[in-house]
Amino acid sequence: MSGFEREVLSVLPRLKRYARALTRDVSDADDLVQDCVEKAFARRASWRGDNLQGWMMTILTNLNRNRLRSRGRQPAFVAYDEAEDLASGEAERDPLQLDRLTAALERLDADQRAVLMLVVIEGYRYAEVAEMLDIPPGTVMSRLSRARRNLASALQACNVVELRR
Amino acid sequence: MTNRRENEITEAELHAYVDGALTPARHAAVEAWLETHPQAAKDVAEWQAQNEAIRAAFGETPVAEADDLAMVSGLSNRRKKRPGRLAMAAGFALFFLAGGGTGALVTASLDRGESRQTQIAQMLPEASKTNYLVYASEVRHPVEVGADEEEHLVNWLGERVGRKLSAPDLTAKGFQLVGGRLVPFAEKPGAMLMYENDDGDRVTVLIGNNPAQEGTDFRFDETDGVSTFYWTDGSFGYAMSGAVGRETLLGLAHIVYVQY
Description:
The complex is a heterodimer. The longest helix of chain A is centred in the C-terminal third of the chain and has 28 residues. In chain A, helix 1 packs across helix 3, helix 4 crosses helix 8 and helix 7 crosses helix 8. Chain A has eight helices and no strands. By secondary structure, chain A is an all-alpha fold. Chain B is of the alpha+beta class. Chain B folds into two domains: 55 residues, no CATH class; 140 residues, MucB/RseB, C-terminal domain (Phosphorylase Kinase, domain 1). Helices cover 43% and strands 19% of the residues of chain B. Chain B has ten helices and seven strands. In chain B, helix 2 packs across helix 4. At the A-B interface, helix 1, helix 2, helix 5, helix 6 and helix 8 of A face helix 2, helix 4, helix 5, helix 7 and helix 8 of B.
């Protein structure tokens, strides 16, 4: 096992946790991590030799965005009254949607969710997130702000659904 | 308005306040400001609650899992047909908000369990090797509880794993106990003990549950320079890994085998 493989192995638990915070279930998350590992090996030459974890988190964030796009289910935040109908329809199809937080997080767009999870779960500073995602600090703040406000509305919308059951 | 800079709180600062990213002075300033700004205070409270909920759902301590090594070495057969070995706490912790829907998830995890139980002979060496590779290379925190608290260590791990545990004495072979930690194995708590010799060579012992009580005799596996001996005995599986060569490890594993 090479030194690089060893290093990848050591950051894997953190990557998995982040992936699980971004996706709907553990299986999706592990697929994402597997893709990320493969991409990291393929791009090994472009790694500058420091902060492997941050580098792989960036790859994983991008892969997740592409994954949702290619599935055509990039979740956009929907307005409050639309959300109500949408949620009640889904609740009947999928019992897992009963979970308010998961359901609400599913409606955030991938970029907002990524910033929120990098800050809240992975504990990165705002400046680090800006660097990892190659976006200006102001964009980090606006995504974080939108993520939190949208999440609040979505949780409220889910509440309404639950009360009606 | 004596000092505009001090009194003005931006939304960015409110987020930084929620995320604990402010200096103590600014933190206090925001706290005071919120007392006279109820709408902002309501937002902040909401965001704090979100943070807590998100952490409860996804913020578990990252730990090495049985399939880590397969993922890195490109040996993973998990894709598309994955048996779903580790439907971990992340998924289940989500229910703190809902209360409903648990039935469906519990069923799903039981279904997965069946396919996993037939693989313990494969999982044991894989998990042991991963634990060794991840933790034995840690310089500062290779273990959660050190050998200086050996009694506490074995009592604690024994209780979590569900059997009386002791740390086998390997000093005859020149290995001292470093300590141990709780590790996941087959979706349940497992125990890992670590030993080290004067040359700094480390070996790890894994004790995990074996719910189907599958029998596996004493076996050897060597991959990527890591040797592993493993076996099962009733409700438990055992594995010992190290990069110390087969003969040395055999000597150590034999002692562990006899003591367990």
